[in-house]
Specification:
- The structure holds 2 protein chains of 2 kinds.
- Chain A is α+β, with helices and mostly antiparallel strands.
- Helices cover 26% and strands 25% of the residues of chain A.
- In chain A, a hairpin with a 4-residue loop joins β4 (63-67) and β5.
- Residues 2-9 of chain A have low confidence and may be disordered.
- Chain B is rod-shaped.
- Chain B contains 7 helices and 12 strands.
- Chain B is an alpha+beta fold.
- Classes of the chains: A alpha+beta, B alpha+beta.
- At the A-B interface, loops of A face β10 of B.
Chain lengths: 126, 292
C-alpha cells in the first residue's frame, strides 16, 4: 500500500494533514494559486489571544502548510498558528476557512472523507 | 581485657567506635552481665534495618567473659546475640556511654552528638515497643514484569526520535527511525487497512497473534494491541509494567491517556477516536521481531 510521504517534499508549498498514527500523515504539493489565496486569507485574519485548541490523541489533529522558506501555518479548530524562525503568531480562523481551503487542495481521497464531512458538518451548524 | 563498642547509628558515615581496655572494660562487662532472660511479649529487635540508632554492637576482643558471645548487640538495656535475649544488669548502660562522663566524650563527634544520641536511643526504645511490625509491602509486585517501562521523555524528544517513530515502533519498543510499517521488513506489508490485512503483516514481522490473551500479560515478552480505523489507518497500544496501556499516536508524543484523557486499563474499552475496530492482542518477544 502506497503512502504519500515521499516525492513531494521539494514542492514550493507543501500541505499536510495530521491525522494518522500508523501510516505516515498525508502530504501534498499545494498549487501556487491556492497558496496565494491562503496567504491573503491569513493576512485578513484577526489576532487570537486565547488558548490554542487542544487536539485529541488519535484521529484528526489539524493540517499544516509549509513553504520553502520554512514558514509553517498550522490550522485546527478555528485557530491558525504561524511558526517562523522560532516565533509564533495565532489568528482566529472563523468558519475554519483556512483549514478547509488547505484540506480542499489535497488530491481526491487522500484525506479520509469522514474528516472533510465532519469539518463541513461542524462549520455549517448555526 | 579489651572491648569494642560500635554505636550503630549512621547510614552513610562510618559508625563511631569506642575501645575500652583494662579496668574500664572489666567494669563495662559487669554492667552488661545478663541478669534475666527476656520474656515472651517483651520488645525484640525490628526485623529490618532502620534509619538512625539501632543499638550498640559489643565485641569482646579477648576471651569472651560472663557467658556472653564474642559479639552481641545492646539495645535499650537488652542483649541480643547467639542464644542471647537477656536484660543487662545495668539497663542504663547506653546512658552511661553517652553521658557527661561516659567514654563517648573521647570521640571527636561534635558537642551536640551525645545529646543527639540520647534522643535517638529514646526514639529507638519507642520504635521497639511498636513491634510486631506489619510485613513490608515493598517492593511493589508489578503486573507485567517483562513489559517495557513507560518512559515518555525518551520518546518525546520533540525531534527526530519522536517524529520518525510511530505507534508500531513504540508498541514493539523498537526505534527504527523509519515510521515502521507492519510487514515492510519481511516484504509482506499490509495491502488494506483492515484487521485481516494488517495482522498477518505484523505476524510476518514475528509478532505473535494472541487473540485469547484477554488483557493478560504473557509469561515472556510483552502484550500489544492492534486497532483499526476501517479504511483509514491502524494503531497500536502496548501494555506497561504497571498493567496499564500506553501508546504513541504517529509522530506525536507517547501518552498513557486515551482520547477522553483517561488512563487505559484495557484498550478494548478505551476512547480510541476513529480507530473503532479492535483487531487483536499480540505478543512481542524481545529481540525476535524485525520491523522497518
Amino acid at each position: 500500500m502506497g503512502t504519500s510521504r515521499s516525492g513531494k517534499a521539494r514542492a514550493e508549498w507543501v500541505g499536510s494533514a495530521r491525522v494518522f498514527s500508523g501510516r505516515p500523515d498525508p502530504t501534498w504539493a499545494v498549487p501556487a494559486h491556492v497558496a496565494t489565496r491562503l496567504e491573503r486569507l491569513w493576512e485578513s485574519l484577526e489576532p487570537w489571544t486565547g488558548e490554542v485548541p487542544a487536539s485529541p490523541a488519535l484521529g484528526y489533529r489539524g493540517c499544516a502548510l509549509r513553504d520553502a522558506k520554512g514558514r509553517e501555518w498550522v490550522a485546527y479548530a478555528g485557530v491558525v498558528m504561524l511558526h517562523v524562525s522560532g516565533r509564533h503568531e495565532a489568528r482566529q480562523d472563523n468558519g475554519r476557512a483556512f483549514e478547509k481551503l488547505l484540506l480542499a487542495s489535497a488530491p481526491a481521497r487522500m484525506i479520509p472523507a469522514s474528516i472533510i464531512d465532519g469539518l463541513d458538518a461542524e462549520t455549517s451548524t448555526p | 581485657m579489651a572491648l569494642r563498642i560500635t554505636i550503630d547509628i549512621f547510614s552513610g558515615r562510618p559508625n563511631p567506635v569506642i575501645d575500652l581496655t583494662g579496668r574500664e572494660a572489666r567494669d563495662a562487662m559487669e554492667r552488661l552481665r545478663p541478669i534475666r532472660k527476656l520474656e515472651r511479649g517483651e520488645a525484640g529487635l525490628p526485623p529490618t534495618g532502620t534509619l538512625g540508632y539501632r543499638g550498640m554492637v559489643i565485641e569482646q576482643l579477648d576471651t569472651p567473659a560472663n557467658n556472653l558471645p564474642k559479639q552481641f548487640r545492646l539495645a535499650n538495656g537488652d542483649l541480643f546475640g547467639a542464644r542471647l535475649a537477656h536484660r543487662a544488669t545495668d539497663e542504663a548502660f547506653e546512658d552511661f556511654v553517652c553521658g557527661s562522663t561516659g567514654p563517648i566524650r573521647r570521640l571527636d563527634l561534635g558537642r551536640n552528638f551525645p545529646g543527639l544520641l540520647q534522643k535517638e536511643i529514646d526514639r529507638y526504645r519507642r520504635l521497639r515497643l511498636k513491634l510486631p511490625w506489619p510485613w513490608p509491602r515493598w517492593p511493589v509486585k508489578y503486573s507485567c514484569d517483562c513489559a517495557p517501562l513507560y518512559e515518555p521523555a525518551w520518546w518525546n524528544d520533540g525531534g527526530q526520535r519522536q517524529s520518525n517513530n510511530n505507534c508500531y515502533n513504540y508498541a514493539t519498543n523498537y526505534r527504527s527511525d523509519t515510521f515502521a510499517q507492519p510487514g515492510q521488513a519481511a516484504g509482506a506489508m499490509y495491502t488494506a487497512l483492515t484487521c485481516a490485512s494488517v495482522k498477518p503483516a505484523a505476524v510476518a514481522d514475528a509478532l505473535i497473534d494472541s487473540p485469547t490473551a484477554n488483557n493478560r500479560c504473557p509469561k515472556a515478552g510483552h502484550l500489544v494491541a492492534l486497532v483499526i480505523w476501517p479504511g483509514g489507518d491502524f494503531h497500536w497500544y502496548r501494555k506497561g509494567r504497571n498493567g496499564y496501556w500506553t501508546h504513541k499516536p504517529g509522530g506525536t508524543q507517547a501518552t498513557n491517556l486515551d482520547n477522553s484523557g483517561a488512563a487505559i486499563p484495557d484498550p478494548r474499552n478505551a476512547d480510541r477516536g476513529p480507530y473503532t475496530s479492535f483487531c487483536t492482542f499480540m505478543v512481542v518477544m524481545h529481540g525476535h521481531i524485525k520491523i522497518r
